[in-house]
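Our consortium's second objective concerns turning raw sequence data into structural hypotheses that experimental partners can test. To show how far this objective has progressed, the report includes one record in full. It was chosen at random from the queue rather than selected for favorable results. The single chain below, 977 residues long, was entered without modification.
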Amino acid sequence: MPDRGGGPTGPRIRVGRPSRRVRTLLMTLGVLAVLGMAFTMFAGFWTDWLWYRSVHYSSVFTTTLWTKIGLFFVFGLLMALAVGFNIWLAHRLRPPLSAMSMEQQSLDRYRMGIAPYKRWLLLGITALVGLIAGASASGQWRTWLMWVNGVPFHQKDPQFHLDVSFYAFDLPWYRFLLGFGFAATILALIAAALTHYLYGGLRITSPGARATAAATGHLSVLLGVFVALKAVAYWLDRYGLAVKSSDFKATDNWTGLRYVDANAYLPAKTILFCIAVICALLFFATLWRRTWQLPVIGFGLMVLSAILIGGLYPAIVQKFQVQPNEQAKEAPYVQKNLKATREAYGIDGTKVSDYSGTSKTDDKATLRDDVDSTASIRILDPNIVSPTFQQLQQIRNYYAFPTNLDVDRYTKDGKVQDTVIGLRELNLNGIPKNNWINDHFRYTHGYGVVAAKGTAADPNGQPVFTESDLPSRGDLGTYEQQVYYGEKTTTYSIVGGPQKEIDYSDDSGEKTTSYKGKSGVNLANPINRAAYAVTFSEPQILYSGAIGEGSRILYNRTPKERVEAVAPWLTIDGDAYPAVVDGRIQWIVDAYTTTNGYPYASRTTLGDTTADSLTATNNSRAVVAQQNQVNYIRNSVKATVDAYTGQVKLYQWDTQDPVLKTWMKAFPGTVESKSAISKSLLAHLRYPQDLFKVQRELLTRYHVTNPTTFLTGSEVWQVPDDPTNKSGNAVPPYYLSMKMPDQASQAFSLTTTFTPNGRDNLSAFMSVDAQADSSDYGRIRILKLPTSTTVDGPKQVQSQFNSEQDIAESIKLLKGGDSDIEYGNLLTVPLDGGLLYVEPVYVRGGGLKYPLLRKVLVSYGDKTAFEDTLDQALNKVFGAESSTTPPPDKGTTTPPTSNNPTVQQALDDAQKAFDAGQTALKKGDWKSYGEAQKDLEDALKRAEEAQAKADKTAGGKNTASPSPSGSPSPSGSSGSG
């Protein structure tokens, strides 16, 4: 046993091996640590498998997994063999040791040091490079699947006349193989050179030859392989010119060949390919010549050629041939880019019409009537009124509405009307007490739909609800109201077990429920519980008594998250929206197929082109994969997510899209046919906002079809900034039922405006038919205004609103006290050659926590109005009243009555509060108005409580119960305003 310590007379310390108990403890801890790491890895894999199986998309999981595993092992093994074989070969070709120089004597120590471990060192090096290469290759699973399953586009590029599928599906895979070949060759070359040096095959300072014949031949072959790969790269670069991006004239993301590419770079790449092939052969020839003289000369010539032919010659062509006559030289290539870009983004069918911008009719009464037939003007802004929904329809603090509501279409009395809709979703921040049981077992879901007419507000400025209260009731009929999956549901819930859930609360107290759906993963299995305890870092899942027979864990609960998980090859639209379809709440999610390999089509970055004033303030509206650069996009899939069961369904929407067909081959059975979409669902499908925003951004430049005009940039447009938002971001597109000049009737549309580049006047108005059940669905129309005269754009109209003295004074009055003004969507409607602008104005403050519609701004031509209702504003602008709209009542109200004296007293108090609020409103006394509104709510609540008590006593519901909308009913309508 070794001693350590002082000299012969000093103390001696005995150092021994650890005791058996310590060794056993350390070994046990080591084994436990390894098992813990293994189970953690297993837990992630197992929970993923369970989740995919629960949503019935296990084939997506297995296909993706086996593809990744296959790529990992194949390319990892290839890399390991390439490096390991060359190390072994270099060692085998080592020279016999002879009289050694100082250099070799120094290296001998290293040779002797690694001699006992050579085999293990070789295995370690090859395993390391194999793991790295395999991990990198497994990330190319999408590229592999697209190459293996690619279907033709049946469209050929104009330069090489190859099918577009070659660039979209084949070329990316070939580039990956080439990159892998370069990496393997370089690593093998470095490993072989180091081995030769270590064993004397290469010498730096030793006298005599610098390399043995064997080392020369070995390294020459590897260099020859490298140069041969460079030849392949030059050949592929020829085709890469068709998808190469560059900054050119009116676009920063020009894609495709230009004159210098076709006439200088293309022949240069061909010449360099030939030179590289010859150079590679010279390197291979060193196996017989045993000298590097010719290969080195050839390699030098190749480098010089790359500089002269590949760099200098194209610069000379550009300088002396293109620049003196650029328009004539570039026009044919610009024409190819224009055609390909318009096809790739689905804007090739855009109809561009000239539009005067000024009214053609002097008959004011006719114009006034034309407004009603031209558009159903939506004055309820879904991006403003969420706090109003929250205040009036939240009911309980643990419910919440999204920041931005949605616009949909619903039919009442045979008439389709634009509707603002939102779900009452779960808000964990509002529950009475946060703890693990409350957060994950008791408060698990939201409840019900709240909807309001988009074209109307009541006399108080509140939405006219068509579906409200808790449970929700109204025009939507009977449907499953529990919302277990929604945009605000970001945490997991455990349902269906011993612990009851809070369903909703009413005057009789809390109602409880237990989830009956088959969604989620069963936690009865202890292995599943342990896996989820690890995955969610929540040990209580393993041992909690609240989990038992029937318990299921729900997670990945936002609609976008679920669709992206089951279809990772899709790009998801930023705005999922709810709809009541066949008695169920369905989230509708638009999804896109994209590629970056469409020849000649200019690229765009999704995150930039889909950004606007709404995404700047609400990140949940941002498109998934924001930084993706694409040059082809299709809304090829419509997806639905059931708000109760979480069931995800994917429907093929674009039946001609080759990219979708490719993915459907890769993942068979995941996408249902278009014919499977029911008529009731079809009625709620709409044109997606993000696709529209991408298309409008492209159309700022690609609305022109003349290459000369494109080159001059004289007709470049821009999407104006939102004049009602201080963020400086683009105005969002708006959904609106309207008709364009060439349409016979109104259609649900998505609209936007354009202004000239750097100016604020209007250049054009764009709309697309957004109604999925319309034969014109997806038809883009642009009304192009003349350049000889100017028509006010959104910013100028907003400035005009703000600068008119009467309007400014009215706004100042509205802002009295601590009130604040919020401008709604500035809607633009083409009307008889002119442009009608409508903007609702909301007031928040004076005791109110939510915005109420107070005024409506209207502008047409040189006329502007700022009135209490839309009808009044339109009448003032046109100087005539509509013959199709009944005149509004002067504000008298007929309060509801009841035989119950307690209820009647409460209703009388409500009427008094309502009248007091109207009086305060006319005076602009917002503080008093807020107090009156509070009194009104209190009185109505007393009426409901008294009526409920009477109903319970009578054993039935009295038909004279107060209005569930929460306000006395006016005897006359205030019209659209």
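The partners drew two points from this record. Residues 210 and 371 are 91 Å apart (CA to CA). Residues 20-54 form the longest helix (35 residues). Both points have been shared with the crystallography group to help prioritize constructs.
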